[in-house]
Design brief:
binds flavin-adenine dinucleotide; alpha+beta; 21 strands; 12 helices; 28% helix; 7-stranded mixed beta sheet; 2 domains; FAD/NAD(P)-binding domain
Length: 490
Amino acid sequence: MRSDEWNVVVVGGGAAGIAAALAAGRMGARTLLVERAGFVGGVSATLPWLGFHDQRYQRVVRGLAGEFVETLARSGHASPITLDPKCGSLAAVHSHYWKILALRLLREAGVTVLMHAVFVDTVRSHDRITGIVVESKSGRETITGQVVIDCSGDGDVAARGGVAWEKGRTGDGLVQAPTLVFRLGGIDDDAFRKACQDPAFNYREWLAPYPRLFAQMAEKLETVDTYVLGGFAGVVEQARRAGDLNVPQTRIVGVKLHTRETPNELSVVMTRVLGLDPTDVDSLSEAYARVYEQVPELIRFFRTYVPGCERAHLVEIAPMLGIRESRRIMGDYVLAADDLISGARHDDDVAMGGYHIDIHRPSGSWVSSTNVRAYGIPLRSLIARGVDGLMMAGKCISATHEAIASSRVIPICIAEGQAAGTAAALASLPGRDVRSVPVAELQSVLVDAGAELGLDELERHPDADSWPELPFEETKVAPDAVIADSAWLT
Ligand SMILES: Cc1cc2nc3c(=O)[nH]c(=O)nc-3n(C[C@H](O)[C@H](O)[C@H](O)COP(=O)(O)OP(=O)(O)OC[C@H]3O[C@@H](n4cnc5c(N)ncnc54)[C@H](O)[C@@H]3O)c2cc1C
């Protein structure tokens, strides 16, 4: 049994948890990371990383996210960060080398990582969260820590500890549609690129109302290997009419990926079911059964209907169902859509975001998007309300259904994790707790560690002027489609 008292205990080793544990470990805090899988990375393993920049191509995320992607790029395991008119920017990341790097950095920082260790309960003494209970091959053990950071993506620690949380959109509680992501290899780069450059395929529907921007982007495709797709609606409809595609998705959604060792792959983000309750095991199990069946169906669709994909083959299926939204822990501040749309800054900002509000429609197809300005994420959104000793980072921070739809992307989750881990390490110093950490001290430590807090003017990417930039108030495209009842989990 482990009887140590830890300074910082992090539950969940996804993008946010890795950053939280690493930041705390590098501060010298005795840090434990608990992960139920046999690797770290969570959903971030197998996906491209979006949103280092806002839509004006200002850099909003640096720090650990920058360090990770730049380290991987140096060894050929990530693409350069490439600009994108809707997502700001993106980088293709080699999933396995990301897991290797993350684990190595955690060990170098002195973090103890418990693998195949499942968080099962929260230890609460009056209004303080004092530890967690973990179940593993070694049995059940109680772990005490001065600060616990919930990076489970589901707000598990909060829920078990009687801390307030919300789930889904106001009104019906439905969460964004989940997707099991998979990657295709064997894409004929030239043929695929030509199709994307052909306005008839409408590969990026956001650009369709702006032919000049589309032409600019089509030219860019000659020079970049990594780019985002959201379109090809006509091709999807053709397959549906022919009875070849029943997946409840009306667009090709994905990213053309390219790293030195994994050229010409396609990340496909099209499987989906509606009505998932991500905290209900029966609902989850039924969702898995359905989305796995959709993978071969989609591969057949790509090989038959999409130029350049005739010889595409399955390379990898993401290690877990991609749940875009689950419990959101209520904190001292609830980040809301208005904050994002107005580009609000707060005195206690400890991270930033600039990715659009990207809602994979809970009861429809494809996405609804609302543009945002570079916004600050306050420390108060990372501190659980009504208790001491509990923080959170990643997709379960204190935010609304709409705000999470922006802050959930990987670089922003990493920035939140870095902030929470650093704050927790400072909070574990004698005589302190999470609410008494001096904000100026925390911000100064974060800036010294390379984080972007927007304290000075944000830097525009050097190539920004030559890339298409969408207007803030965009022409709306693509109304919600009617989805067959069979797409719903019962
Ligand atoms: C389908 C999909 C596609 C996406 N595409 C992109 C994209 O292209 N680019 C991008 O930047 N973002 C994308 N996102 C968003 C982004 O990937 C996630 O929101 C982000 O990775 C979440 O990170 P996280 O650390 O908060 O959560 P997670 O990655 O979910 O990590 C949570 C971790 O906690 C562990 N855990 C959970 N419960 C327990 C427990 N009880 N005990 C122990 N461990 C536990 C899990 O195993 C996991 O490792 C996508 C999301 C989805 C769902």
